[in-house]
Specification:
The chain is 58% helix and 8% strand. It has 264 residues and is of the alpha+beta class. It has a 4-stranded antiparallel beta sheet with strand order 1-2-4-3. Strand 1 and strand 2 form a beta hairpin. The chain is elongated. The two termini are 36 Å apart.
Length: 264
């Protein structure tokens, strides 16, 4: 296995669609961690000033409350951020990193709790020594918390911006008249699968004819099954047209919005 393959995570869905994700390197992960540390520190400085008033009454009580609040703040911030923002904290968003299930399933709250609680074990005995060594030895660059939770951290490079006008101008989209279906698609199609449709449309002219047909057939089947789309919305249109309709309602209702932004 060469180094390029080691940096990628490949997941094949039951429908036969293969997703390839770039695994995040240690430098980017450390940069994101530093940003999150600054965010927590800024919030803590506000709380600490309030706790100073409590210390006037009882230093012991203030110390105990400080320990509990800092634990809740530092862990609660990462857990809630990764849960609500689909695997991202402020630092991860800044550096385009995302936590995801290692098998491609939706990230659960239990996973975000477990991987962040075990951050203390990864940090032992020095600055992330156990976590760093574990990630180096892991084929999927997983630290101890990721191995326990079944998660990985990926890097999402910025995609080329589609020509929105060229993509949608003059083309009928049956989904526009069905807001409930659009809502289900936005809820059920994960960002990485939506990004794959975006990438396929951006590069469709460079694909071989057979590969193009197969790719859009796989993607169309995946989108249909994800949101249980009524058959009348897809009858009479090609798989590529269906994928284009889905991508439009997912990303292009707000022009030039980036993939994944709609759900966060």
């Amino acid at each position: 296995m060469n180094s390029e393959r080691e940096r990628r995570l490949r997941i094949r869905t039951p429908e036969g669609v293969e997703f390839s994700h770039l695994l995040a390197g240690p430098v980017l992960r450390m940069c994101a961690w530093v940003v999150d540390l600054f965010a927590v520190s800024a919030a803590w400085s506000v709380l600490a000033s309030l706790l100073a008033l409590l210390g006037l009454l009882s230093r012991d009580v203030a110390a105990m409350v400080s320990i509990i609040l800092y634990f809740l703040l530092s862990q609660g911030y990462r857990i809630l951020a990764e849960w609500r923002w689909r695997g991202q904290t402020l630092g991860k968003r800044l550096f385009r990193l995302r936590v995801m299930d290692a098998e491609g399933f939706p990230l659960s709250l239990q996973q975000t709790v477990l991987r962040n609680i075990l951050r203390f074990a990864d940090a032992l005995p020095g600055p992330y020594l156990i976590g760093g060594v574990t990630a180096l030895l892991s084929r999927k660059a997983q630290r101890l918390g990721d191995l326990a939770a079944g998660t990985v951290v990926i890097w999402e490079p910025k995609l080329p911006i589609l020509d929105v006008a060229h993509l949608t101008s003059g083309k009928y989209n049956s989904l526009r008249a069905h807001p409930s279906v659009v809502a289900r698609l936005r809820q059920q199609v994960p960002p990485e699968e939506a990004r794959l449709g975006w990438q396929a449309l951006a590069r469709r002219e460079h694909l071989q004819p057979d590969a193009r047909l197969q790719l859009f057939a796989d993607l169309a089947a995946r989108y249909r099954s994800a949101a249980q789309v009524p058959a009348e919305l897809t009858d009479g249109i090609t798989d590529e047209q269906w994928v284009r309709n889905v991508v439009e309602v997912l990303f292009l209702s707000t022009r030039n919005r980036e993939p994944g932004a709609s759900s966060q």
